[in-house]
Amino acid sequence: AHTVARDADGVLTVGGVGVTALAEQYGTPAYILDEADFRERARAWRSAFGADADVFYAGKAFLSRAVVRWLHEEGLNLDVCSGGELATALSAGMPADRIAFHGNNKSVDEIHRAIDAGVGRIVLDSFQEIVRVSHVAQSLGKRQRVQIRITVGVEAHTHEFIATAHEDQKFGIPLAGGQAAEAVRRALQLDGLELIGLHSHIGSQIFDMSGFEVAAHRVVGLLKDIRDEHGVELPEIDLGGGLGIAYTSDDDPREPHEIAKALTEIVTRECEGARLRTPRISVEPGRAIVGPTAFTLYEVGTIKPLDGLRTYVSVDGGMSDNIRTALYDAEYSVSLVSRTSDAEPMLARVVGKHCESGDIVVKDAFLPSDLAPGDLIAVPATGAYCRSMASNYNHVLRPPVVAVREGESRVIVRRETEEDLLRLDVG
Ligand code: LLP
């Protein structure tokens, strides 16, 4: 849990550090990440699943070298999905055998680097990739541990852009029409591959466990078919990530131990029914670990009241540091954090500084009506998919990530500078 409080002046403090001091030292906007909270969540997932299962943190949610080191120390593994994420993980000392490599279009060069580095598994996403990985592994004289990602055909209850288990989409090999069974046949035949299991990721920001239940049922069904056809029991199954977090008080997420218990029970029950040894389970939570651990600190700029409608509150960032509202209609909350106020609440829309009317950070929120330029406001739960999806739109500089812990703060990803921008512009 966050160590959030208000000091005697009404200033919000996190990890023992006041937000006005943070804004002074690091500027705004800034992502403020509570290291103790991150470690606590990582540890909770780790201990919920225990020694017979593996937790792979999904690096796409947010990755930096400090995060990699925390994960390593807390005993988690890491899921990467690009050469850049792989490079970050390796450069921060994550042992390669604790890395899983994902992606629907890994380049031959990325596959080469991953196998050469000795990653613990590559998750095969297509028929062509089965052949590609086999070739590259053979050219390196290695046998690569692989899983096959299957799309089990369930509709996860979440935004369409982040649902991934229905069959009409780019990820994975469909169970339907015997395609996944055929992929298994090929993977078992080809040299250079050691097929260790099956993988299913049904989507993201999910609260309802029934999708996982259907997925586990179908994955175990395929494990059984594989046993019957080939006489092998694949030793692992990965159920992906996707567990939802609370963005607003309407969301009611499950605790890691409840999730671990539910998933383990589902898989065990299904395997008993199929008379299979229960495989080693792994999961890939990203958002559920890092999402709640950070908030974005903004300074209020222009305020535009529109009578009878709402007040537009502009901040010094926007869709470049949080694209989720524009992209997924995501909901966020917001609070005044540099002081307290007893003023009447006003209906506000928090918007950014970009040249686009869809540049909204918080669509509908109440803020005190005495809000003024220079006040600091915070948007919670921006640890996942905000810095990692940040852009330079309008040549706005991407904000830093500042970690706080026990009264101390430090930059773990620095603010972009105009020199950074111009360095890439070599025309
Ligand atoms: N494993 C795989 C194979 C994935 O594709 C993902 C997310 C995860 C694990 C982690 O999912 P999580 O536990 O973080 O939900 N940009 C979107 C989310 C896209 C998720 C993509 N894949 C958002 O901001 O909501």
UniProtKB/TrEMBL annotation:
Residues that bear N6-(pyridoxal phosphate)lysine: 60
Reaction equation(s) it catalyzes: meso-2,6-diaminopimelate + H(+) = L-lysine + CO2
Domain of life: Bacteria
Metabolic or biological pathway, per its Swiss-Prot or TrEMBL entry: Amino-acid biosynthesis; L-lysine biosynthesis via DAP pathway; L-lysine from DL-2,6-diaminopimelate: step 1/1
Protein family: Belongs to the Orn/Lys/Arg decarboxylase class-II family. LysA subfamily.
Binding site for pyridoxal 5'-phosphate: 242, 284-287, 385
Function: Specifically catalyzes the decarboxylation of meso-diaminopimelate (meso-DAP) to L-lysine.
Protein name: Diaminopimelate decarboxylase
Domain Orn/DAP/Arg decarboxylase 2 C-terminal intervals: 296-383
PANTHER family in alphabetical order: DIAMINOPIMELATE DECARBOXYLASE (PTHR43727), GROUP IV DECARBOXYLASE (PTHR43727:SF2)
EC number: 4.1.1.20
Species of provenance: Streptomyces rishiriensis
One protein family per Pfam: Orn_Arg_deC_N
UniProt-listed NCBIfam families: lysA
Subunit structure: Homodimer.
